[in-house]
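#struct-pred
JK: can someone run the complex with magnesium ion? inputs below
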Amino acid sequence: MNDWRKQADEAKGWLHPAEGPALYDHALKVANLGPLCEIGGYCGKSAIWLAAAASDRQSVLFSVDWHRGSPEMAANRECHDPDMVDAEGMFDSLPHFRRNLYRAGFEPWVVPVVGNSATVGLWWQTPLAFLFIDGAHDADGVRADYELWAHHIIPGGLLAFHDTTIPDINRVARRALTEGFDLVEQVETLQILIAQ
Ligand code: MG
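RT: done, structure tokens with the ligand placed:
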């Protein structure tokens, strides 16, 4: 196992061991066509896999996350982690994200966009070769991410959804199949779709 794979393995996050390599393999196929983008960066686990593809193809990964955590990461919720709380008592995953990308050697290929995906999405204009939606996991959040971001994917580009076993997310992924996307592969909870 080389260093960046070890770093991805050790980074906190919820990717199944088969999902990281699947992200990498698919992103590698399209990274020469344009930039990659992920919604939901957290501690950089998926960003390391996507940045590996970006570096192999001289592309770039935009990682959009406000880094204040999702509702399920708040104190007393199921995904809370006290390591993520800063000196002000605020949730902050950005230092962990930067450290993991630095350790993996991929900082030159990753642009952290620190902001709410809904706010950034309103102003985003750059066409994307690959979009990974793994931000808010509630119905309104995932629908907003899909509606604001998926139309930026170029024809032949890829759209990936994480956690498609969650009904609200699965519903949006199925909707995408009726709106110009075809299913390429499902790996664990990861669905990869291609834009027509
Ligand atoms: Mg996820």
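RT: quick notes.
Residues 30 and 129 are 6 Å apart (CA to CA).
The radius of gyration is 15 Å.
JK: thanks, will look after standup
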